[in-house]
User: What shape does this take?
Amino acid sequence: MSSIEIKNVTKQFGKKEVLAGLNFKLEPNKIYGLLGRNGAGKSTLLSIMTNRIPLTSGTVTVDGESIQNNDKILQKMYLMSEVSLYNSRLRVFQVFNETDKMYGKFDFDLANRLAGEFGLDLNARIGKLSTGYRTIFKVLVAMGVSAEYIFLDEPTLGLDANHRDLFYKELMESYANRPRTFVISTHLIEEVANLVEHVLIIKNGKILIDSGVDETLAKAHTVTGPEADVDSYTAGLNVIGHDSLGKIKANYVFGDMDDKILPDTVSIESMDLQKLFINLTNEGEN
Amino acid sequence: MYLQVAKQIEEAIFMNGFSEGDQVPSTTEISRQFHINPATVLKGMNILVSEEIIEKHRGLGMFVKKNAQERIRMKRQNEFFDDYVSGMVVEAQKLKLTEKQLIEMIERGYEKNE
Assistant: This one.
């Protein structure tokens, strides 16, 4: 098992800089959450990591070897949107077969069983699938493929609550049975908060957070109480946002707290991942 | 999160959802059911193993240890002061209740529960 290293990666589309020098590492057998607002560069990053589009500068390496034109390494990586390249007249089961030919050892048992669970017709033409079933189809191929690195770009797009629940369950089970690396980009942060182990937050083409979910949340605090008390208590701390209700205010702090004595009127609580994300990526603040 | 996992399983054992010698659900089952990363579930399980509440039977899974309930009760008794009594006194002072009034309330609570 190998890790993927992303070094100083930039990407420009014309004059627009989409990725502005990214550095991070993906370790084997972990589930990563790739979070960012619309247009933050998530899909571009996923496509670059899997060599689907060229980067402007920087390197993506696996054990020191560049991924560019390196079929042996690229076979270890699978990007969910890959199947969009297939002829829309192909049927679902045919794409399973094609994927098996390309990557080898396709898990037909799993993919066929999941097709049954989700109610996806194996004989349906892929171009005729509805938005939801199109996503389900892509997810099933990604779950069945034998690659070590699976990149899931919006795996719940268009799925109803029941199907999302089923997807998360099956993902956890499949991961437990055959550990591999998943990188999941999603806007449904609350739903994946407990299933990802490590979080990557990107904003304006830069990495804002790259750390374990537990460590990240350990640094996120909500300080609530009367406005004046809250402001004086959090003075000098890294306040990333606030909410107010009448004269009661909540300041969101990301980082270490100091040793100041907590007034009776003020309370400190934790913050969930979604709240942290919103406050970190709000425009105009910070 | 892993602390919550440990707490939930502990609570289930304490409330007799799982008795001594019972198998507790596997990491995979819990992970699947609640959409929690298996590493997190395992971390929570390991806390309970180190507290001698559950034990691993190689190849079979996790089982509730003998006297697990008693051990949980002892642990919770130790935590009772910090978790409840300290906070109650602070809140009572905020409400301007005297020590005597608070004790009377506790006595009343006991009478109600008899």
Summary: Chain A has a mean pLDDT of 93. The longest strand of chain A covers residues 16-26.
